Structure formats: structure tokens, C-alpha cells
Amino acid sequence: MEHRFLGASGFKVPVLSFGTGTFGGKGDFFGAWGQTDVDEARRLVDICLDAGLTMFDSADVYSGGVAESVLGAAIKGRRDSVLISTKATFRSGDDPNAAGSSRHHLIKACDAALTRLGTDYIDLFQLHGFDAHTPAQEVLSTLDDLVRAGKIRYVGVSNYSGWHLMKSLAVADRYGYSRYIAHQAYYSLIGRDYESELMPLGIDQGVGAVVWSPLGWGRLTGKIRRGQPLPAQSRLHKTAEQGPPVADELLFRVIDALDVIAAETGKTMAQIALNWLLQRPTVATVVIGARNEEQLRQNLGAVGWNLSVGQVAALDAASAVTPAYPYWHQAGFPELNPKPV
Fold it and tell me: Is the pTM of this model over 0.90?
């Protein structure tokens, strides 16, 4: 398993991480993702560690905290062999302060996560979303306090816009707070918005991408085909509207290109889509998920080889869309605005 530095830090992470959204299965939304219990989670962790995948990603809202509890039980006795990343910000209770990035909520959320995970530190603690109500100085000073207390080691964000992230980095630099080194962002062959602003920002400011939903919310697994109904077992039946949007034309154009390359390489559609991401600038680690051992082993097959230059170009072309303004305008002046890819 290849390891890469996470942003502008000395912290190395495996290029594949395991997402625990399938752990617990509490509620309709997360139940549609998976219902992995502790015994099965322990088996999946075993397979990951054997393959060199040592980083496990969770969040306090995954199955209402159950995912973190299951992960904690699955890694019990081998904490030193794993890296843990988790997230907080979204509502996690009925209390008026049980949401956001206030000092009150972040300290409480961090302590609760430590308890559920059965550990005294979190390797990477990320803000799950942007909180427009809490000043950046309050957020960053709180996270810096948690770093200094030894409860978290590195900090990152998720689902930020470019100006949200850049403002936060400026505040961190001004006051000497711990800097965000990671942005857990949606990025896939059918969702390349990340490239317009967040990728150039990541290159310039040393923020590594932790990619979520690399298979486009389960649409690039090879089970979805033009003119055919969704497979019987698919989380899209219950969660499609909550996931990243994609036009059918784009989806099936990409699927057609993946089919051609699958025939050339003997790799699965999912492996090809993941491998494409691993060749993109700023990408430090791609979060993979799995309902079972078979899916996990297939996803692990995305590493140890690389698509050819021609195959990457074919996928680039199939997945290309006109970017939003002002990026389409800037692209017309490559002398002034060279592409990062």
C-alpha cells in the first residue's frame, strides 16, 4: 500500500482509507448503506490491515454514533496499528448546542467521540461541514486547544467552499493556530467540481484531499447500466436524492468509457474509477466503503497498478463538463491560468 503525506504536513496516510458509514446501520438512511456489526467489522479491519490499509474514517452522525462505537470495538487491542479520522459539526442531538462548530459543541463532540472509539486521541479530526454562525477564530482556537491537549493530532475540514477554507487558513496563520491539512471532499469521475477551485487551493496552500464517495454515490460500481432498472440491492433506492446529483447523460458516457478500459485492463469498473482518482493532484487518500468482504477486496484491487496515459485521457474526456463561471472564463486564458491537471 502506497503512503502519501497529508497536505503540507509530515503525516503519512495510506492512499486508501476505509469509511465506516456501513457500520451500525441505525436508521433508514444509514441502514441503506449497510448494517455491519462488531464481528463483521473486526473481520473487515483484519483484511484492511493485511493489505496495508491502516486508516479508518468515521463521524459522530454515522448511525447516531454507533459507527464510531463499532469501529472502537473492532480495533480494540490494536490502536497503535491504526489511524483514526472522524468528523463532527452536524446535529448530533436535540440540545440547541448539539450542532455547529462552537467551542461548546466541538469540545463535547470530541470527548464523546473519544469515548465511543475507546481511545485517548484522534489522528485526524475534521469539521463535517461549514458553520456560518461561529467565527473562524473561535473554531480554530478550539481545535488548537484540543491539539495542545493531545486529544487530536491533525485537523481538517469537509465540504467547505474555497473562500471558507482560505479564510480559515488565513486566520490560522494570523494567530498561529493549528492549520487545516486535509479537506474531505466529494470527487469522482461523475463529480469533478473539486477541480475548479478546491484543487488549486489545495496545491497552493498544502491541503490534501481525503476523497469521499469516489464511486459517485455507488453509481460507478458496474451495477448501473443504460436502460436498466437499479439493482435490487442498492442504497440509491433510499438515498439517491441525498447524494451528489449527476445527469444521466454524463453518467452513462463515463460508464461507456469505463467499460472500454475494463476490457483493456481486466480490472473492474470500480477499480478503474478509484485508480483514476489516485492519479489526480492533491489526492492523499480515497475513502472506500464496503458492505462485505467481497466488496472490500475488490476495492483494494484499485492499487498496485496504474492506468495508462491514454486511458486517463479517455476518462478525462468522457467525464468533462463545462465548469461554472468564472472558471470557464479563466480556462480561456491558459497563459494566465494554467490547469493544475
Answer: yes
Structural domains for the chain: 3-331 (3.20.20.100)
What is the number of other CB atoms lying within 10 angstroms of the CB of residue 247?
A: 10
Please, what's the b/e burial string for 36-59 (b: 16 or more CB within 10 A of its CB; e: otherwise)? bebebbbebbeebbebebbbbbbb
Q: Is 106 helix (H, G, I), strand (E, B) or coil?
A: helix
The string of pLDDT tens digits covering residues 91-123 is 999 999 999 999 999 999 999 999 999 999 999
Amino acid at 152: I
Q: Which residues are catalytic?
A: 62
> What are the pLDDT digits (tens) for 52-66?
999 999 999 999 999
Per-position DSSP letters for 129-158, written without gaps between them = S--SSS-HHHHHHHHHHHHHTTSEEEEEEE
Is 182 in contact with 6 (CB distance < 8 Å)?
A: yes
Radius of gyration for the alpha carbons in the chain, expressed in angstroms and rounded: 20
- Identify the residue whose cell numbers are 469501529: 71
Quote the CA–CA distance of 236 and 243 in Å, as a whole number: 9
Residue with cell 459543541: 105
Rounded CA gap, 127 and 160, in Å? 9
Task: Provide the β-strand partners of residue 152.
Answer: 122
Alpha-carbon distances, residue 163 vs 149, 169, 190, 312, 314 (angstroms): 29, 10, 24, 30, 32
Q: Which residues pair with 13 in a beta bridge?
A: 4
Round to whole Å and give the CA distance between 84 and 302.
22
Residue 306 gets the label, from left (phi > 0), alpha (psi -120 to 50) or beta, of beta
Q: Choose among 256, 265, 251: nearest CA to 301.
A: 265
Measured distance CA(237)–CA(251) in Å, rounded: 17
